[in-house]
Amino acid sequence: MADTITTLSLITLAQEFRGDVVKQINRRTVALRLFPIVPGEGKNIGWVPEGDGQLAENYSDGADAANFGGDSQTSATLNWGLYRANLHVSNLTMDAAASASTPEGDRMIWARNVINGSAKLASLLNAAFYSGAGTGTLWGGLDTAIGSLTNTYATIDRTVGGNAFWLPTVVDPGSLTKPTFAQIRDDIRKIYIACGENPDVAICSPGVFNAIGNLFDNTRRQVDQIMTARGKVRLEFGFQAIEVDGMYFVKDKDATEHTIYYCNSNHVRIEVLPPAEYRQLQIDDWEEVEADDGYGMVPLMLKYEKLAKLGASERAETTSTAQVVVDRPNSCGVRKNVDIT
Questions:
Q1: pLDDT tens profile 280-337
Q2: What dihedral do alpha carbons 205, 208, 209, 212 form, nearest 10°?
Q3: How far apart are CA 123 and CA 29, in angstroms?
Q4: Which of 15, 22, 117, 125 gives the lowest tally of CB atoms within 10 Å of its CB?
C-alpha cells in the first residue's frame, strides 16, 4: 500500500489569532494633554477682557485735574463646540464575537467600539484644537484664536480701533525661512512686551520639531516631562520635549505644518460643559466615557448614550460639548513659514 502523507490541505483547522487586536492607527492627542481642561456653564463661554484706557500724567504744582480716563471692558463669548462619534453593531456580531475564542480583544466587541469611538472623537478634537474655524458649532482652534491679526475672535473684531489688546504676536516672513535661536528669542521678546509674560509651551509639527532640534549640538536638553498650568505632564514612550530659554517645544501630528504655536498655558484651556445628568446625579440614564487614545485617559467628560433600536442591532453615540479658549491672545503667538528642509 502506498504511503500517503497527511498535508495541511487535507485537514480542517480553526483559524487562530494571537493575542489582542493590534491597533494600526495614530490617534495620539498631544494638545489635549498639555492644557487645563475645566468645566464651563451656561449657554456659551463668556469672559470680560480689559483693555488700556486709564490715564496717568505729569502735572505742574497746583494745576487742576483736567484729564481723566479708565480701562475699557469688552464682552468676549464663544459658542460651544459639538462633536460626536456614533456606534452601530448588529446583534449577530455581538453574539458571535462573545462566543469566539480569538482574538481576545473582540470578545466584548461593543465595549471595544465604545473605546474606539471615544479615541476617534478625541483625535478629531485634537486636530480641531489647531484648525477649527470657530463658526457654528466648530471649535475655534489656535489658527483662529492666535493665528491672525485681522479676524474676529470671541466676537471681538481685531481690526477695530481700540482692540489692540486682542492682538496676538504673528510673525510671517512671507516665504519659507529656516528657524534660528535668534528668531525664537525675538518672538518671545515680542510676546513678553505685549503681555508681560513668556510663553511656556511651543507646539509644532514633527517636521518643525526636527528643524528646531537640528539647531542644537549633541548636548541639546531634552526632557520627558514638563510643567504647564495643568500640572506635571509626562511625555511617555520616548516622546520628549526640547527646552529653549525655559520654553518647551512639543511635537504634535495635528499641528499645522511650517508653524510654531507659542502658548501660555495660563491663558489657553479647554472648557467642557458637563451633561445635565452629571449635575443632577441622574446616573442611571447616562454614562461618562473617558477618551483614551492608547496613551492614557483624557478627561473630556464625554457623554455616552444608547439610541433607539432599529431592528436587530444596537446603536449609541458618544458626544462632546466643549470649546478651546484663549482668554488672553496677546500672551500667545504664531510663527509661520518655518522651513523644515
A1: 554 444 456 666 666 667 778 888 888 988 889 989 999 999 999 999 999 999 999 9
A2: -160
A3: 6
A4: 15
